[in-house]
Amino acid sequence: MALWRRLTQGLRALVRSGRVDADVDDEVADYLERAAADHAARGLSADAARRAAILENGTVLTIREEVRSSGWEHPIETTLQDVRYALRGLRRNPGFTLAVVGTLALGLGASTAVYSAVRPILLDPLPFPQADQLVTVDDRTSDGTPLPATLGTFAEVRERSHSFASLAATDAWRPSLTGSGDPELLPGQAVTSNYFTLLGSTPSAGRGFSQADEVPGAPKVVIISDGLAKRRFGGAGAIVGQTILLDEDPAVVVGVMPPDFANPLGPTVDVWRPLREQPTADLQTRMWGHHYRIVGRLAPAASPDDAHRELLAIGQAPRPEFSRPEWADLSQGMVVRPLREAVTGSIRPALVAMIASVLLLLAIVSVNVANLLLARGAQRHDEFAMRLALGAGRARLLRQLLTESLALALLGGVLGLMIAAVGVGALVALSPPGLPHVEAIRLDASVLAFAFALTTIVGIVVGVAPALGAIRAGATGGGMGGSRRTTAGPGRTRRVLVVSEIALALVLLVSSGLLFRSGRSLMAVDAGFDPSHLITLQVVASGHEFDSDAARLQFYARTIESVRTLPGVTTAAFTSLLPLSGETDEYGYEAQSLPELRAENSGSAARYAVTPDYFTTMQIPLLRGRLLDATDRPGGPGSLVLSASFARRLFGDKDPIGQQMRFGPSVGHDAPWGTVVGVVGDVRQYSLALAAPDAFYVASGQWNWTDRVATLIVQSTGEPTELVPALRHAVWEVNPNVPIPRVETMTGYVQASAADRQFVRSAIGVFAAAALLLAAIGLYGVISGSVTERYREIGIRTALGATPASIVGQVVRRALGLALVGAAIGVAGAAVATRLIESMLFGVTALDPLTYLAVIALLTLVAVLAAWAPARRASSVDPIVTLRAE
User: Is the pTM of this model over 0.85?
Assistant: First the structure.
């Protein structure tokens, strides 16, 4: 009951403090009257009796404070008093408040936005049970980089390894959906039946695959995504058990995956079918190509290192029952990586660089705010000294000042959330293609919790040092209205802080400068073709009407004829492989004059099956011989065109024209040789940052098959995108059932090739600009405060003959000194920090002297500009006014 009474009394004191104080005053007054009466009974006069009662017990005010401080509500009440006092003080200084809140909002908003992007990609666990046991298994190239495995490798590893509780394989599949609505090319996967169970996922409607579904000749079944079910079929309940047409073949939909299923090896996949292919003794089949992805779940006691060692031992101990071609001999072992690393490996360096950059920006913000708080504390020395003299404890004063800094931080955090909302939208808009979990980048509850925690930490960090300094200054009597002298401590601390701010800003500016110069170098790279005025349309010759190579060739020829009649079209051609599109299609080779290539793995070269006018349309230069033309027909002598670097690497100074070569399925067989008829310039296929691969060109119809998926490239006389509706109509006029899944300009592909670098460059560039502005503000504040503190000295020097120019020079030199000291420290920091972005640089090193000199020059200019106004103010000090004030 006593506990309940204390609780209710405390709540009453918080809600009705005035009434409670009045009640306590009445009780104390009554007690003092009775005490005075006791003293009067002993013979004291009324005044003497009351004085004795007060001396014995205290005044009404002191007793009331003692009584009120004994309750549990007292800390809450005093905290609320501190908050009210802090808000009143901030309202009285709107300029200071806006400067601090705005600065904090910038740092907290940027940090929150970056955290919202990093969390789902790098920090959140993968949405699968025991996700830490999931790994990918890849073949290994000669330089150790991962390479998709062959199906034969998967079969051997699944049979011989013991480090995995389960292994599954996937292969890319792109069927055309027809029969309802417009034809659509679907991103798909062929998967082993245990793929979903290995991940720990099951369809939300229907069933998963079974081993019976993998048997060749079994009824065709598929599982589709929830998005496809809703987009085309009215939802999961309406489509399960129904038949759809994929490549004009009926397939029964047996299941629909849940909407939150995160497919790690194909985030955009809409349809899955059972993987029914089996490796054969014929090593020239597609099952022995490097295009299968393997995902595994480790055995309970196994680690990725254990699996790596076991696969190395398996690779070095071949068995006769498992075939191994030279290009998949496993002698170097395999690459075993945690699934998260495999999914995020390409974007991880960019995100780590962004984290480091936003932490630097947050440090600069904290330093800047600490500087502002120090400056305000110096202006409040008299207040602090008076409060301490009147009996305020240091702990009480420290709590009051920390409450003020926390109030500022919370206001900055609220405004920072608005900045973060804009930043999240910008990050999503600028995100490079293929960024994993981009749909999860948003301001949710966990991001808000992070923002609140970060705001609290920053509020305490930036407030502690200024508060302690202010209390120390107040304790030494730093003011009390008399002396104008100030201690050197706060000024020295502020100078150290601004030097730190400049050093941190230089690190960000150097990083941004390196990425900027790298981007310019990258975009200046000769891609090997002219992307201007080129529009591309990917078309899919799917369905049984295109089962024969002749039918596909006829479709491509008729489409080109239809397109060439359009106004504004200069030339047009088809290619099986489009530069900078992210596609890959490579094959091994041999040359008749180089018999040593037959005895070892010769490597691989990118294959381009093209129609006449391809080189003219792309403006790829002919360096030797002739181009492929209409005379290179199916059944005729095989003609080949090589890229310049490929021809030079193979034949050196010899003339490659007339050389006999075989590629792909023809290698090692008694197949006709192809004749090299021309050499063309190198073309960047995979990225502007990567060297052009070995490449060969063959006429469509002279390869072993005619591709079902090809890209139409059209050169226009005007803006290429204006041709898109007419081009679509021209293709569908030839065949209305052909899907056109992708339309893009070649300029768009060139820009997308540098998208990941552009993503990081834009983010760090914004952070660097903010850091430069904050450093300038901080330097201005320190120089301005220094001029204010030295008014008397400046006035005396002026009276003794110092010229305005010398006064300006001294102030500017002080600013330059701080800037150069900060720059020297920052250069050392940048030399270490820029290693984080070294992998993203192109055409420039992490220690590029031009970038460092340019940044130092920029900081020097900013220092001069920041010091100019305080310097002019110092030069205009009137010595008469200054001395009269003394």
Answer: no
